Automatic annotation (TrEMBL):
Keyword Metal-binding appears in the UniProt entry: no
Biological classification of the source: Bacteria, Bacillati, Actinomycetota, Actinomycetes, Micrococcales
Annotated GO CC locations: ATP-binding cassette (ABC) transporter complex, substrate-binding subunit-containing
Domain of life: Bacteria
GO molecular function, one term: carbohydrate transmembrane transporter activity
GO term, biological process aspect, one: maltose transport
UniProt keyword annotation of Transport present: yes
Family of the protein in this entry: Belongs to the bacterial solute-binding protein 1 family.
UniProt name for this protein: Extracellular solute-binding protein
This protein's UniProt keywords: Signal, Sugar transport, Transport
InterPro entries: Maltose/Cyclodextrin-bd (IPR006060), SBP (IPR006059)
């Protein structure tokens, strides 16, 4: 029987804002480094699952099908709000009361990996988008499975772009900036594009520009930070120029619904957002508004690389029912289940083959998200990222609002990041 224990009713839509790292697990890995496998036959026993927000609300209904196929399983789902979940997991791990399975924000993986069980060999990671798999990896080991994915794309007003002389969306940095200016000069927009000017996770939100310029946040083995590089500085100079030239508003309203309203009324006809923005724009502009905008992959310099977010499923290594826990995770990430999950929640499937389903393949906007997901990156899964990210937010705000030289800002951020290390 599926039971739901709601600890707090609020469903806070902060899904794309999380990331982490941790130590290697001990005990269950084989000599080859591969985690122990699973038994044959159906899952059995009791399982506890903690999940956040809308996913926690929709999960019990979906799990009825798993329970029907595994009649000896009982699953209890506990709902947590995103804004309290990190502390809840931290407290539960310390107190030895963690659930069997948890819904992890991709940026939390590094913080808690020491408490996770390594993914067994039955989990085929080749079935998922590479960027989403990367978010599960800590010190070369996979400590979870991508459940659903999220990425940023450019939303733009096609009607106003055409008025500005653009029938096709530009692909390069240079042409993207030219479109932003044309939207002001020829289409009557107050600002060409909405960009984060500071505040929590602002730096993380603009990483698609450095990544598309070949920059990385750390070296290949995640032992050293790499902020003070020509690629990073050049990307931040480009980003700063939008504010210096009046193409983006450094004092744009950040309250709920403000970006959507500015997009719908045409005052800021371009923004970067994830797939949930589709529903939010419909709520503001109505269903007919869908004909006035499209989505496009992020503008390219050396690549067109966006942010890989979403949610992962993890199993805690202290679980009393490892076999059933991983069988449930495996079922939740199968292609057929992922399509049903998309129907129920709108979450984008992490399994690439699930994108062949008509609901996704025949929707031009969602199909574009599938294209973008082939080129994504994510912050490194190290425990110090949350502190480094906060310091980066401060530097970005000084670049945008105080005119700080990006080169000096990145030298300062490099020094801060070096002093924090990886947090291991």
């Amino acid at each position: 029987m599926i039971q739901v224990n709601v600890r707090k009713a609020a469903a806070v839509g902060v899904a794309a804002a999380l990331l982490l790292t941790g130590c290697g697990r001990d005990g269950d890995a084989s000599e080859s480094g591969q985690a122990a496998g699973l038994s044959d036959g159906p899952a059995k026993g009791t399982l506890t699952v903690w999940a956040q927000a809308a996913e926690a609300e929709a999960l019990p209904e979906l799990l009825k099908e798993f329970e029907a196929a595994n009649p000896d399983v009982e699953v209890e789902v506990t709902a947590l709000p995103w804004d309290a979940a990190h502390n809840k997991y931290q407290t539960a791990i310390a107190g030895g009361s963690a659930p069997d399975i948890a819904h992890m924000g991709t940026t939390w993986m590094g913080d808690f990996a020491y408490a996770f069980d390594a993914a067994p060999k039955e989990i085929d990671t080749d079935a998922f988008f590479p960027g989403s798999v990367q978010s599960t990896e800590v010190d070369g080991e996979k400590y979870g499975v991508p459940w659903y994915v999220d990425t940023r794309m450019v939303y733009y007003r096609t009607d106003l772009a055409e008025k500005a002389g653009y029938k096709e969306f530009p692909e390069t940095w240079e042409d993207f900036k030219a479109l932003a200016k044309a939207l002001q000069d020829k289409a009557g927009a107050e600002y060409g594009v909405g960009l984060p000017a500071g505040g929590a996770d602002a730096f993380q939100s603009m990483l698609l520009f450095p990544w598309s310029n070949g920059a990385e946040l750390m070296n290949e083995d995640n032992t050293e930070w790499t902020f003070d590089t020509p690629e990073m500085v050049e990307a931040l100079e480009y980003y700063q120029s939008f504010f210096d030239e009046g193409l983006a508003d450094e004092n744009a309203a950040t309250d709920a619904g403000a970006a959507e309203a500015a997009f719908v009324n045409g005052s800021t006809p371009m923004l970067f957002a994830g797939p949930s923005m589709i529903g939010q724009l419909e709520a503001v502009g109505g269903k007919e508004f869908a004909e006035k905008y499209a989505v496009a992959t992020v503008p390219a310099k050396k690549s067109s690389t966006s942010f890989s977010g979403g949610g992962n499923l993890v199993v805690f290594k202290d679980t009393d029912n490892r076999d059933a826990a991983w069988k449930l995770v495996q079922w939740l990430t199968e292609q057929e289940t992922q399509v049903k999950w998309n129907r129920a929640t709108g979450d984008l499937p992490s399994a690439a083959e699930a994108w062949d389903a008509p609901e996704l393949a025949d929707d031009p906007k969602l199909a574009e998200f599938g294209t973008q997901l082939k080129d994504t990156n994510s912050p490194p899964a190290v425990a110090s990222w949350t502190k480094v990210s906060a310091a980066a937010d401060t530097e970005l705000e000084q670049i945008v609002k105080a005119g700080k030289d990006p080169a000096e800002a990145m030298k300062a951020l490099q020094a801060t990041a070096d002093s924090l290390g990886t947090g291991d």
